Amino acid sequence: MTWPLVALLALYPLWWALGLAVLIFPIMAVPMAYALLRQHRQGIGLRLPPYFVLWLIFLAAVVIGVGALSSDPVGVVDGGAGDRILGVAFRLIEYASLTVLLLYAGNLPATGGMSQRRLVGLLAWLFAVTVAGGLLGTFAGEFGFTSPVELLLPHGVRSKGFVQSLVHPYAAQIMDLVGDPQPRPAAPWGYTNTWGNNFCLLVVWFVVAVWSYPTRRRTKVLAAGTLLAAIVPVVHSLNRGLWIGLGVAVAYVALRQALRGRFAVLIAGAAAVAVLGVAFVASPLGDVVNRRLENGKSNGVRMFLTERAITGMQQSPVIGYGSTRNTVGGRQSITVGESKGCERCGNFTVGGNGQLWQLLFAHGIVGTVSYLGFFGLGLWRFRRDSTPIGIAGSAAIVGTLVAMFWYNALVTPLAFTFLAYALLWRNWLQSPRALRGSGRFAPFTPRASAASPERALRGSGRFAPFTPRASAQPNNNTSGVPG
After folding, report:
1. On the chain, which terminus has fewer CB atoms closer than 10 Å, C or N?
2. pLDDT value of position 468
3. Which residue range(s) make up the domain with 400?
């Protein structure tokens, strides 16, 4: 049963327009969980991803942290557990839903479900959607509308900022970062920072889908045009975190190619980057970047929130405070607060300036170490996978770990990171058992997998024995600070 995952990803623009957006993940988690339960009842072993126990420890830390909701460290707005339980419940439900997504995506091959190519194609489709949303936000930044879900809510509920961010579709966030208000693309991901984070996570799958599988020349031309068009919203997003993330992705892929001795690919890539760089500097887009780099209005806020997160973690190091908190005043004075004339003057969210800082403050050392351990050890487990999926998936996880310093991961960025993890995990399961134990992967490629496995093995004469049955064996946002 693959329709829940297909509907979730392929129809995401529809969910966004309906006002469901991130709410669709808990909804689709229900049929996914049912499919896993039915698989278990049929006697088909439920596979668990490597180091899954660490993720369970993280979830336990999130639950245990609820007990600290009524505690307040120095320098935050006083409040009770009742005022914070809604946000905590939302995050816990989303974390649980994404856990189901990871297990569901990883177990699909056990029943002859979704192929690697199909899942990569769905992620590539979402990259195209991201580019389209970016262009919409760049050229029609004021675009927005009342969604059907929003209409169904009482006025007192839908007028709250948190609820608006969930159910009200809009194309961009309007911010004054370079001297005058500018639209920063957000559609269909809700926040500009989330848009940038997802752009970095999805672009690698777009490249794999088009250039690692047999595709028509017309498709390649359209894909190249999409990448060129994407430069415009990437620049106009004024998102330094996105720019750094793309640099990290390019550097990581280049390093992996160099380690494989594929210097021709490196030279071609470097030439393409050089040509794009010259064209970029000669265009008005270069001026936009220079203006953003010269206006680091959010730097002080980020440093202020980072200091508060570390201080809070020191006061409750084991389990944290269970959720985020709002600061008393701003970084220059406790008397400064948010107002109509200055919406970003104070009452900042501690933990809203990056996933790492939210983990430290809200979930303490236990939650932080288990979260990082799950992804870090998984990255190490799959390090020898040199297939296109292996390199792209590893690049996505590396990008996620780097972006933790300035981006929050919940909801969609973590979902795409989990799907990258699932693709790596499935590749690992499909490799011969002997190589799997040593951490090495058979050098099969997506192109070969498009045909039958037996034919690919017979034709090359270079592959280790491949047994499809081996894959059936069980084996163990608040984005308010500009980037």
Report:
1. N
2. 36
3. 3-472
CA 232 to mean position of chain CA atoms: 21
> For residue 277, what are the CA distances in angstroms to 14, 199, 263, 344, 483?
36, 19, 21, 34, 22
Question: What is the spatial distance between Cα 363 and Cα 405, in angstroms, rounded to a whole number?
Answer: 16
Q: What is the dihedral of CA 361, 246, 13, 20, to 10 degrees?
A: 0
Amino acid at 344: R
3-state class (DSSP) for residue 39 = helix
Give the torsion sign (CA, 214, 216, 219, 223).
Answer: positive
DSSP 302-347: HHHHHHHHHHHHHHSTTTTTSS-EEBSS-SS-TT----SS-TTSS-
The SS3 assignment for 350 reads strand
| 153 located within any domain | yes
Per residue in 278-336, pLDDT (tens digit) is 766 666 666 666 666 666 667 788 888 999 999 999 999 999 999 999 988 655 444 44
**181-185/172-176 β-pairing:** antiparallel
Q: Is residue 477 part of a domain?
A: no
Q: What number of helices (H) and strands (E) belong to the chain?
A: 21, 4
pTM comes to 0.86
In a domain, 377, yes or no: yes
Between the alpha carbon of residue 324 and those of residues 59, 238, 262, 361, 366, the distances in Å are: 16, 26, 46, 7, 16
19: left (phi over 0), alpha (psi -120 to 50) or beta: left
* Distance between CA atoms of residues 142 and 137, nearest Å: 8
| Count of the separate structural domains present in the chain | 1
- Distance between first and last Cα of the chain: 39
